[in-house]
Amino acid sequence: MKLRFFVITGILFLSIYSCGSKKKELRQKYGVEEKKEKTKSKHTPTLAEIFAETITARDLDYHVYNLADSTMEGRETGKRGGKKAAKYIWDFFLDQHLMFPKELDGYFQKYTAAENDKPMVVLETDRKAYQYGKDFISFFPHDSIDLEDNKVIYVGYGIEDPKYNDYAYQDVKGQIVLVAGGEPRDQYGNYIISNEVDPYTGRSLPSVWSSDPIKAYILRRNAAMKHGAKAMLYYDPQNHDYFWNNFKKHFEKKQLEISVKKDSVYDFFINKDIFTDITGYDRPQDIEYTKKTRKYSVPIRLTYRNNNDIIEGSNVIGILEGAPKSDEYIIILSHYDGQGKHDGEIYPSANDNASGVAASFEIAEAFNAAKDSGFVPRRNLVFMNFSGKEQDMIGARFYIKHPVIPLDKTVAVIELDKLGRIRDLKEDEEITDFYPINIAFNGFQKESFKTNIKKMQSYNNYMTLKFKPLVEQSGYYYFMKKKLPVIYYYGTSDYADYHKPTDTPDKVSYDILEKRTRFVFQIIWQLAYQKKL
User: Fold this and answer.
1) Angle formed by the axes of helices 355-372 and 57-67, nearest 10°
2) DSSP state of 464
3) Of 245, 46, 242, 257, which Cα lies nearest the Cα of 133?
């Protein structure tokens, strides 16, 4: 292994001083003049520079062309091309022997999502047709369906708990169930399920089945689903206004809702009119309820029409393990989805963001080469290619809600985006920023961070740095909201092919992508190997 390392080191050391380049080609392509190098003192290459030399334009070219190939159909999340791109990333991770998070079965973190447009829903009994949004509401999106039954099964509180179980003697599989809010009490008014006591009054406190309206509802929904109910009608008069007000807010902002379960129970909050129509009673406590099955012979017809397709997406996550006792993680983030295929035309999304994914691949390979040569990172490196960026950030939003790496152990998040292009030049314009890269960061000590990067720039003098403020425009934003340190490296969106079918692999400058990727690698190297961040 040592002999292999010295051979690699010697080759790479010599390559740093070689003067072969593509400067003439780039000048012809972009019409720019390269800034003259200043005379400087002799610099001894760092380990980061040496291993950065393994990052090549040829390999970047290979991955961008594969990811932006017409067979990928623009890599839209949930579509055939997006799933094919996810498999391509899986295969790369496998080839690099990256580990997958123990919470996942492989590299895929799967999720579902759907638009939160109001569905068209009709609920009718033999007496009346009820209005969605007024008489009954729902929050979870579902597939379109027609349900019809001649009975409804009342299951009381719909509680399943070791101390109290409404489903103990019930067979509700394939049935419509009616559930009431609240929870049981004894003859003295004490809650039967709760173990908590008010220290001042000595009386028992509500359990999770009624202390929080949302949790109480989710628990009932899960219980109904577990026992195979096909629909749940939920009546909770105490929290009526709370749920109806949230229903209005829920549909005010148009966005994709994540964690949709296509086969979940169809669930609805109903008002007093529907409850009385079904049971003949005004209040749940007026019903003489036992644990024996109680059926109401009321014909129910339910029509649910969801015009929004449910999207099935995947984040692809691989881990390059660091030192054996390390419990700190650095996430290298990039979105692999693109604009997709529309009206028969493919949007290859080569720069946005096949270039960022290719850069993350090369960074992973470079760290693997360092690790194989005996330079094991102090911290674990997590390569996360997320989807759904072009569809309301659903992949990043899902991960933050369901992190597979503890957020309190995530010490840095670095996102790579649109690294293969420079901005379009105006007529007769000449620029000296030959390899510009934009850097936005948050959560690091600003002056020391800038100082370190500028020091790195001094021996990577081809790079022009531009420090920009962070804005709400990509996946890193959701990590930043969790107060995690983030760095966002990006090229530009200021080119004519942005989000167009002409964002093709041949428009990417692989020499620029190589230089930017090498520079980013050196910064990540510092974060991965230094003793303290």
Assistant:
1) 130
2) E
3) 245
Pairwise CA distance, residues 355 & 353, whole Å: 5
Structure token digits, residue 41? 């003192």
- Give strand pairing partners of 89: none
Give the residue from 136, 159, 166 showing the smallest Cα distance to 210.
Answer: 159
Tokens of 20: 């072969």
pTM, 2 dp: 0.70
| % residues pLDDT > 70 (the chain) | 87
Rounded CA Rg of the chain: 29
**Higher confidence at residue 94 or residue 252?**
94
- pLDDT above 60 for 500: yes
Residue-range domains of the chain with CATH:
2-29+47-113+311-529 (3.40.630.10), 118-305 (3.50.30.30)
Contact between 192 and 183 under an 8 Å Cβ cutoff? The reply is yes
What ranges in 42-125 are assigned the alpha helix state H?
47-52, 57-67, 80-95
Q: Would you call the peptide bond into 307 cis, given omega within 30 degrees of 0 as the criterion?
A: no
Euclidean distance between CA atoms 238 and 274, whole angstroms: 16
Cα(353)–Cα(336) distance, integer angstroms: 6
* Beta strand pairing call for 329-335 and 410-417: parallel
The structure tokens 């690091």 sit at 444
User: What is the pLDDT confidence band of residue 254, given thresholds at 50, 70 and 90?
Assistant: low
Tens digits of residue pLDDT in 365-384: 999 999 999 999 999 999 99
Q: Kindly tell me if the per-residue pLDDT of 2 is higher than 50.
A: no
- Torsion angle defined by CA atoms of residues 367, 368, 373 and 374, in that order, rounded to the nearest 10 degrees: 80
Fill in the amino acid letter for 299.
Answer: P
pLDDT digits (tens, 9 = 90+) for 228-242: 999 999 999 999 999
Q: Per the structure block, which two tokens stand in for 214?
A: 């949302």
Best CA proximity match to 334, nearest among 356, 319, 352: 356
* H or E element that contains 155: none
Helix (H, G, I), strand (E, B) or coil at 462: coil
What's the pLDDT band for 453 if we cut at 50, 70, 90?
A: confident
337 HSE (CA, 13 A, CB side): 29
DSSP annotation of 206: P
Q: How much is the pLDDT for 295?
A: 79
What pLDDT sits at residue 263?
A: 57
| % of residues, the chain, pLDDT over 90 | 60
Residue 84 contacts residue 72 (beta carbons within 8 Å): yes
Amino acid letter, residue 524? I
Beta bridge partners of 76: none
* pLDDT for residue 224 is more than 50: yes
**Structure tokens of 426?**
């105006």
Tell me how far apart the alpha carbons of residues 151 and 147 are, in angstroms, rounded to a whole number: 12
Average pLDDT of the chain? 86
